[in-house]
Amino acid sequence: MKHFQIIFRSQGKVVLKRLAYLFFSFTIFSLPIQSEGSKLIVFDKKMYLESIAKDPNRVLVNLETISNIVLDIRYATTNNFTGRKMYNQPKAFARKRVAEALRNAQMEFLKHGYSIQIYDAYRPYQATVAFYELIKDTRYVASPKTGSRHNKGCAIDLTLVDANTKQELQMPTEYDSFEKAAWADAPVFSPVAKENRDKLITVLGQFGFRVNKTEWWHFDFLECGGYEVLDIPFEGLVD
To answer: Is CATH 3.40.190.10 what the domain over 44-236 is classified as, yes or no?
Structure first.
């Protein structure tokens, strides 16, 4: 049988594991099969720290440091498509360049009376595997074969709120909707929801973000090549 290969970089050593299954604390999830010789390198905290010592731009920044940012980290609750609490802490992190671009976008939104509300940002690799096992549709969740931009700290799930009331602006669908109405170019019957969606996409586009075509809330930072997939829980990032 062919196996999916993951290289976990841990404690200064490279450990190659040929796996058909990953074991999680809450259940057992079978991994998808990949061709022999395919590799995915996943960094733990030690290797991550070594990488940022060489290049400080690789650091994961706590997005709560952005002025007036709002967090609604759904995966730290049961209010998400899995119905499970996936994170132990309601935190949001992104690579330094991503955080700087998001800060600039936030400043622009604030000029117009809006603020960014974050649903999710950096996502540990194990969460991506769990999501895939539930959905198995790569239009909406990344394949564990490659990991996702969320795993690299280069993607943000977000919306807009009124800067004063913190009330969410109307959008075409709820967050994490798996319907065509959530696609970034889907027809929108509500003029208000369309205007809000277009505003979100346009302004973020000015600061280097591109919307995911199947999720109006998901934005990838385009200048993020070469970043590694990480599997560090939030507790490992907050000292």
So the answer is: no
> Does this model's pTM top 0.90?
no
Helix (H) or strand (E) holding 80: none
The domains of the chain are located at 44-236
Residue numbers of the chain with a pLDDT score lower than 70: 1-38, 239
Angle between helical axes of 191-205 and 96-111 (0-180°, round to 10)? 130
Rg over alpha carbons for the chain, rounded to the nearest Å, is: 18
Whether 174 sits among the annotated catalytic residues: the reply is no
Residue 218 annotated as binding? yes
pLDDT digits (tens, 9 = 90+) for 28-76: 333 333 333 468 889 999 999 999 999 999 999 999 999 999 999 999 9
Q: Which of 64, 168, 215, 235 is catalytic?
A: 215
Q: With contact defined as beta carbons under 8 Å apart, do 106 and 77 qualify?
A: no
